[in-house]
Amino acid sequence: MTGRDTMTGQDMAGRSARYRIKPTPLMGVAMIVAYIVVVFGLQFSSGIPYVDWVSTPANGLRTAVLPLAVGSVLLVAFLAIARWDMIWRDPGRLPMTAVMKAALYFFVAAILVRAAGVDWGTVEVNLLLVVIASGVLVGFAEETLFRGIFLRSMRTNGRTEAVAALWTAIAFGLFHLPNLLVGSGPSQLVQIVLAALSGATLYAFRRYRGLLLTAMIAHGIWDSSAFLADSDGRDWLGPVSLALLAGGVVLGVLVLVSVWRTDKSTVVTPSGITQK
Question: pTM value?
Answer without folding.
Answer: 0.92
